[in-house]
Design goal:
heterodimer; A: 477 residues; mainly alpha; two-stranded antiparallel sheet; two-stranded antiparallel ribbon; B: 335 residues; 13 helices; 4 strands; 77% helix; globular
């Protein structure tokens, strides 16, 4: 009995720490690339608006990055502290992938971050831009390696088992495992969308309060273009990812669909809503569209795919959670597409910056990118249960043999610390966003500039926010 | 291929961990010194001496973890589950400390002291529990069937706790000598005043650990006190004495970079003494680097990347330090 409790506690702890963590890298990925675009545009056009936006978003980036780093260090150690049997069993594959992530991505980000944040006046514009590009490259590389590792656990390939441990036989096959490309693109786009929604909501918030500056208009406009083009693309990528899941993780897909069994000679309906009941082995109160499930997943009118009843009970994921987390993700995705189209329509009518209804909707949509991304992660991670390495190692066999007492203590500590620390961080982020971009930051004398003593001042993070920021924002409006 | 992959990887991980101790040591030390410098301007300067580089310093810790998982998964699994509680407490300390870098500049005046305390407490917890883990590691880890077989509180013993306190002294000295390099005037003078007693305390700690370890572990005593090992290893304690003496001398007359370099050398000597004691075990007392090694396909694959990329990392890290060279002045950056 204690075993089950300890396993569940270990899973909750991992789920909790990684759910918090994943939010920060997603914003980091999106913002880093956004900063590259802003600085590149500034260097190309010389328009102040881009530099103002760069300074503004790099402050937010810095706070967010700090939270990502500290929550990420926890992850690097949790595989060993909480999942030691898994680490010993599969470390031959996951270890090198994680090591490459550190070598190619973490050091790159950390090494150039200092120059990017504090080196604006200490290196030339070319080197500074290079630093921004390197930080962005680091974020993307990091996602690539960690998703290679995660995808390998979902769809393992290129290995054999020798003496009870995983031995890689073909590294190309390990990295380019069947679900990796879909997962990488889907997650990358999710990060860009989540960031665009936050940037857009920040712009909308200021516009709703009458702070109508070129910088604020620019950020809303850029975010809406991003949504218009990328949100529909995400739907297409998601569809491909779904087909890939059908091929490689059919039980997960059946859980996502709430699909229990095939009726002979009849297409599978698409269940829009319902309550998958794992005891009764049926989806109750289902609202369904006949044959649409077959059409989407098999591209034929009466194609069939495995239902949950074809898998032994102990090999089925929790279909109630997976079914609903999947619908939250897809539903929010449709709202994002709608927002992109609506913004295009108002833009065309010349009302993008004035339509209060659109601005309010944009504001409310702000956090939905992160919510959709977490829902997507719940779908894919809970959907692969009870496997830690799909069809190779069960989650129950990978967990460290700590007692429930230890796990309860540390879980409680994590919950308290995370809510205090990241709660405060969120407050600071919102406060920074509320200050808005400063319009004359670039022209103010910066300590440590050319001809002045070279000192690692902290122009972007240090105190000057308070008074002059608000004045600048107001006077700009 | 005649390459002894576990040996090469042991060297890389030893190097990575040493880089961590050398680099994160001094910035953790700054947090440990904070209680002695209550004024805001001093604290701002102290933190700003490392703000652009601390993140890269801490990455060596992540490399240590990831490298261990890649090359010696068994050791990673056993060591990390053996020190479950101290490591989690260390990580929580690092969280508080890491966010304090950003948050204390974002907080209003009424709340800044909270993040100063988080910085102090976080640095202290991270350092102390790193030391506790190290002490527990030297003490030895009970392993049965490739898994940790000891209890959750085996680390709660006099020796690990003493090593924890010893590491606090070590990092504090690293921090104070780093700040002697990066500051000037009154702040620097007070750093010099702090560095001298710290040097004496550290010397006492080194002596205590050097006596305690062989007393507690017979195999380590064997390693050091048998002929001709005694001859080969004699330079280590002699160099420690010489370095400490030099350090005290240099602290007396207008010091600059020298005390920091000498402290680093002292740390390096302690570290090599540790290496001599434990070699070639990666999970003391029983599991060697060859027994814990990952499959050669894993070690080889990662080795290519490590050998190509680590030199690059060292280059751009050095460049980062070069960009932010020079003294940090309290009058700048806080208008």
């Amino acid at each position: 009995m204690w075993d089950i409790d300890a396993l569940l506690l270990a899973r909750i702890q991992f789920g909790f720490t990684i759910s918090f963590h994943i939010v920060f890298p997603a914003i980091t990925i999106g913002l880093a690339s956004y900063l590259v675009v802003l600085e590149g545009q500034w260097l190309r056009t010389g328009r102040e608006v881009f530099r103002d936006l760069y300074h503004f978003w790099s402050k937010i980036f810095a706070v967010n990055f700090g939270m990502g780093v500290v929550s990420g260090v926890v992850m690097a150690y949790q595989f060993g502290t909480n999942w030691s049997y898994f680490s010993d069993f599969a470390g031959g594959v996951t270890g090198p992938l994680l090591a490459y992530e550190v070598l190619t991505a973490f050091f790159l980000e950390a090494g150039f971050l200092g120059v990017m944040l504090f080196g604006w006046t200490r290196v030339g514009p070319g080197l500074h831009f290079l630093s921004t590009v390197m930080v962005a490259a680091g974020t993307l590389l990091s996602a690539t390696w960690i998703l290679a590792s995660n995808s390998w656990m979902q769809t393992p390939a290129g290995y054999e088992i020798v003496d009870g441990r995983v031995v890689p036989t073909d590294w190309i096959a390990v990295i380019l495992n069947p679900s990796f490309p879909y997962r990488l693109v889907h997650m990358g786009i999710a990060a860009f969308l989540a960031t665009a929604l936050i940037v857009g909501a920040s712009g909308a918030w200021h516009l709703l309060r009458g702070r109508d500056t070129p910088a604020i208009r620019k950020m809303l406009s850029m975010a809406m273009w991003m949504l218009l083009f990328v949100a529909p693309l995400q739907a297409v990528v998601g569809d491909f990812h779904g087909l890939n899941t059908l091929d490689h993780q059919p039980a997960k897909l059946a859980a996502m669909e709430g699909h229990w069994e095939n009726k002979p000679g009849e297409g599978v309906p698409l269940i829009l809503f319902g309550w998958p009941d794992m005891e009764r082995e049926e989806t109750r109160f289902a609202v369904e569209v006949p044959r649409l499930g077959s059409l989407i997943l098999t591209h034929s009118w009466d194609g069939q795919f495995p239902g949950l009843k074809e898998f032994p009970r102990e090999d089925r994921p929790n279909s109630t959670i997976v079914f609903w987390s999947f619908r939250i993700m897809v539903g929010l995705g449709f709202l994002m597409i709608a927002l992109g189209v609506w913004a295009l329509w108002t833009r065309w009518r010349g009302e993008l910056f004035h339509s209060r209804a659109l601005l309010r909707f944009t504001l409310w949509m702000g956090p939905t990118g992160l919510v959709a991304m977490l829902a997507g992660w719940f779908t894919t991670e809970i959907g692969r249960q009870p496997w830690l390495v799909y069809n190779v190692m069960r989650t129950a066999d990978g967990v460290s043999s700590h007692g429930a007492g230890q796990l309860t203590t540390t879980l409680a500590l994590f919950v308290v610390v995370y809510f205090v620390v990241f709660g405060a961080g969120t407050v600071y982020l919102l406060r920074l966003i509320a200050h808005g971009p400063v319009t004359d930051e670039g022209t103010a004398p910066v300590p440590g500039g050319p001809g002045q003593p070279r000192t690692p001042a902290r122009p972007l993070s240090a105190a000057p926010e308070a008074a002059d920021d608000i004045t600048a924002t107001r006077s700009g409006g | 291929m005649g390459i002894d992959l576990p040996l090469v990887w042991a060297v890389i991980i030893l190097f990575g961990v040493m880089m961590y101790v050398v680099m994160d040591g001094f910035d953790l030390g700054i947090g440990l010194l904070y209680p002695f410098f209550p004024h805001r301007t001093d604290r701002d300067v102290m933190m700003n001496t490392v703000a652009p580089v601390w993140d890269g310093n801490e990455t060596w810790l992540v490399l240590g973890g990831a490298g261990l998982l890649a090359a010696f998964p068994l050791a990673y699994a056993v060591v990390l589950s053996a020190f479950y509680l101290p490591l989690i407490l260390m990580l929580l300390g690092l969280i508080f400390r890491g966010v304090a870098f950003e948050f204390r500049f974002k907080a209003d005046d009424a709340h800044r002291h909270l993040w100063d305390k988080a910085f102090i407490g976080g640095s202290l917890a991270a350092t102390f529990f790193q030391g506790v883990t190290l002490g527990g590691y030297i003490q030895g880890i009970e392993v049965v069937d490739r898994a940790y077989a000891g209890g959750p509180f085996d680390w709660l013993a006099p020796f690990p706790l003493f090593v924890g306190a010893g590491l606090v002294v070590t990092y504090a000295l690293l921090g104070s000598t780093w700040l002697i390099v990066k500051t000037q005037g009154a702040l620097q003078a007070r750093m010099i005043a702090i560095a001298r007693p710290l040097t004496w305390i550290l010397l006492a700690v080194i002596v205590a650990i050097s006596v305690w370890t062989p007393l507690a572990r017979e195999d380590i005593a064997q390693r050091w006190f048998t002929w001709p090992n005694l001859l080969w290893f004699a330079p280590v304690p002699l160099l420690v004495a010489l370095t400490a003496w030099q350090l005290l001398q240099r602290l007396r007359r207008a010091p600059d970079v020298a005390p920091f370099v000498l402290t680093l050398f002292l740390v390096f000597l302690g570290y090599s003494g540790l290496g001599i004691s434990l070699w070639p075990n990666i999970v003391p007392p029983g599991i060697t680097i060859w027994e814990a090694a990952a499959p050669p396909q894993s070690m080889g694959f990662t080795l290519v990347g490590a050998l190509l990329i680590i030199p690059l990392i060292l280059m751009y890290t050095a460049w980062g330090y070069y960009v932010f060279r020079g003294k940090v002045d309290e009058t700048q950056g806080y208008h």
